[in-house]
Amino acid sequence: MNDRLDAEGRREIPSSLYGLPERREYPMPDAAHVRAAEACFRHCPENLRPELARAILRFAKEYGVEVKSSTVLSYAEQTDYS
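Above: the chain sequence. Below: its structure as tokens.
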């Protein structure tokens, strides 16, 4: 199975399955994509990292993925006051 999504595959995924739904970035329709989002976390803009980190943890729980990144875990604890 190919875990990569092409443009058509990305369009078919509902916004609710993205780590950053308003930007439609970091799709997480399955466990493999949760792990990919965790691995690519460092590429996320600084101001969006807490939101993405919380989404990664939410999807990881849903798909039974263990999040190992201490960076993701620490950002998930941050509160957004903007």
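The beta strands are 18-20, 25-27.
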